[in-house]
């Protein structure tokens, strides 16, 4: 069994059966579009409960496995922590369905209903931030507080990134390799690469050697299309719950960045500008910025992030 912390470069199944998650994984059955699917999730109970539940939404290139230090810290503080792998990601089914943030939000509400959880503190990273925003807009009565960690979708990519069809994106996804994933993670996610980040690449690239990788690549293309076509940035002003926006000041993430000229890249994806702009759009929003940090503060500056999280989760 391969762990999510250290393993050799290996072929991984597209539902990560040979990746060991930090806590036990359960599955919720979902029937949609004449398909029987499974949604994976971790439900971590604290030793001493404080009566509150936190739900964590992962980014596009990840699954619940990269939340380990956050789960540990929250659980130690008394929070129940629910960590789903969205349909199409991680250990969940790689389904050929119409992907929408609305539908994914509904799946997560179904998970909460199944677990008997009425109210959550909701945190989303990257694509998970877009999903957390949509969930909060759809189900404001279920969200006590919204925490956004370097969410994508702070700008409308359709206005400056050339359109690619899912078929176009599929062809690009099929070229995935260990080298291409590592280069992307090095240049897009972190200000300085460290060996301990290699496990993220090994999971992200390991699926490319699977015989089922074409299915994984098509799902990746469909979810890229979802991000591109379903912006949330025009609705930030409608958020009705207290919100905290955490951003790395060196984050320069743009969905579809490879299709842009250097001039266009310089104009967009600047989180040191987008962060303050977005915080002003969201009523009752607090902005917390991390110096010398890119797209994933909870991994790049874990101590600072966890301290800020503990101070602002209430």
Q: What is the compact description of this entry?
A:
The protein is of the alpha/beta class. It has 11 helices and 10 strands. It is 36% helix and 18% strand.
Structure description:
This protein is α/β, with parallel strands linked by helices and 314 residues long. The chain has a single domain (2-312), classed as 3-Layer(aba) Sandwich (Rossmann fold), CATH 3.40.50.1820. The chain is built from 11 helices and 10 strands. It has helices spanning 68-76, 101-115, 127-138, 166-173, 178-188, 198-206, 213-229, 262-267, 271-281, 297-300, 302-312; strands spanning 2-3, 19-20, 25-32, 35-44, 53-57, 80-84, 120-125, 143-149, 243-248, 285-290. α5 packs across α6 (198-206). The termini are far apart. The model has no long low-confidence stretch (mean pLDDT 95). GO terms for molecular function: hydrolase activity. Residues 53-300 form the AB hydrolase-1 domain. InterPro entries: AB_hydrolase_1 (IPR000073), AB_hydrolase_fold (IPR029058), AB_hydrolase_sf (IPR050266), Epox_hydrolase-like (IPR000639).
């Amino acid at each position: 069994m391969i762990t999510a912390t250290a393993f050799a470069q290996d072929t991984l199944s597209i539902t990560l059966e040979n990746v060991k998650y930090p806590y036990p994984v359960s599955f919720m059955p979902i029937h949609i579009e004449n398909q029987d699917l499974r949604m994976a999730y971790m439900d971590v109970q604290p030793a001493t409960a404080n009566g509150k539940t936190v739900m964590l939404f992962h980014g596009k290139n990840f699954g619940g496995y990269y939340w380990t230090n956050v789960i540990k810290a929250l659980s130690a503080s008394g929070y129940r922590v629910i960590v789903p792998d969205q349909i199409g990601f991680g250990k969940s089914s790689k389904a050929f369905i119409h992907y929408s943030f609305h539908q994914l939000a509904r799946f997560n509400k179904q998970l909460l209903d199944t677990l008997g959880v009425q109210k959550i503190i909701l945190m989303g990273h990257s694509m998970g931030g877009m999903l957390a925003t949509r969930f909060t807009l759809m189900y404001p009565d279920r969200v006590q507080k919204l925490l956004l960690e370097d969410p994508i979708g702070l700008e409308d990519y359709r206005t400056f990134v050339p359109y690619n069809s899912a078929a176009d994106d599929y062809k690009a996804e099929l070229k995935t390799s260990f080298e291409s994933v590592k280069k992307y993670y090095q240049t897009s996610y972190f200000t300085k690469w460290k060996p301990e980040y290699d496990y993220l690449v090994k999971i992200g690239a390991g699926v490319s050697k699977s015989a089922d990788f074409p299915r994984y690549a098509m799902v990746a293309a469909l979810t890229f299309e979802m991000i591109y076509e379903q912006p949330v940035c025009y609705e930030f002003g409608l958020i009705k719950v207290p919100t905290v926006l955490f951003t790395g000041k060196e984050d320069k993430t743009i969905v579809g960045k490879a299709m842009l000229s250097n001039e266009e890249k310089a104009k967009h994806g600047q989180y040191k500008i987008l962060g303050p702009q977005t915080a002003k759009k969201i009523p009752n929003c607090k902005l917390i910025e991390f110096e010398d940090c890119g797209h994933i503060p909870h991994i790049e500056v874990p101590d600072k992030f966890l301290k800020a999280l503990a101070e602002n989760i209430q």
